[in-house]
Each structure stands twice: as C-alpha cells, then as structure tokens.
Amino acid sequence: MYDVVIVGSGPAGVSAALYLKRAKKDILLISKGEGALKKADKIENYYGIESITGDELYKTGIRQVERLGVPIESDEVTNISFEQHFTITTVNSEFEAKNVIIATGTNRVTLNIKGVKEFEGKGVSYCAICDAFFYKDKDVAVVGDGNYAIHEANQLKNVANSVTILTNG
User: 41, 61, 100, 166: least CB-packed within 10 angstroms?
Assistant: First the structure.
C-alpha cells in the first residue's frame, strides 16, 4: 500500500510527487499523458524560465521525478473508492493507498470552428491572465458569454490594442 497515489502528471502532480518523495513517502504517480500542457507553444510566466514549450516543461518534470525514483504508471484511472483505505482502479491495474491527490487539470471545451485545434497554444488560448502578454498591442477576441468572458476580456484590455467579445447570446 502506498502512502499517496497521485493522479495526474502535469505541474501540480509532479510538484506533489517531488515534495512527497523528498519527505520519504512511498508514492505512485499515475498518468495518462501530457494533457493540455502539451498544447502550450510558449510558457514565459514561470520563475527562472525565460521561455519553454509545454512539451519541454512536461518532459523536464517527468525526468525530475524519475531521477528521484518516483514510479510512474502509464494508465487511466477509472474509479477511486474508499473503505478503510483508497482503492484506485485503472484500466489495467488496481492500487491501494492511504491518501490520493487528484491533479488531473481540466478538460477544455473546444469550439467547433475550423483551425481552432491547430492553433491551440499558437494564438488560441484558454487563459487570459496566463497569456495576455503574448497579445500585447494586438487586436484580440474572447469567445464566450457571461461573467467568465467579461473577466477574460478585462484581463486583456490593458495589454491588447482592442478586445472584442464574440457570443451567441
């Protein structure tokens, strides 16, 4: 039985693994792959890193936990149950743990518009506060409605040349 099973291998999951391994905990990292991080063409808001791609950041984090001896299971978690301890079921295996950290990030709903997927991380962004700098002095559009779209537009308005909100109602 592991002290902790971490589900997800992005920045949050890898950071948790680093700290727990250094604290001499018996841990397992379960990952089904790179996820949304791979789509980031350029990351420039990490302390000490001038510029890195999401793919490079992901691979660097994985190498770092591997050097510490953290076991990584490449699989997809299908169920987590609790009865005196956690049982983590994957497509191919089952693991037991005293604790579970879920660091799976988020799935984004992509628009059914030609070119959106090809330009994710290369102009199409899902986080204005993360990526506003890349739109400095450019004309940009926010697709969406409600408070979230207004929030994203407000993040961009002091950086971009102009901000247009595109909505279907």
Answer: 166
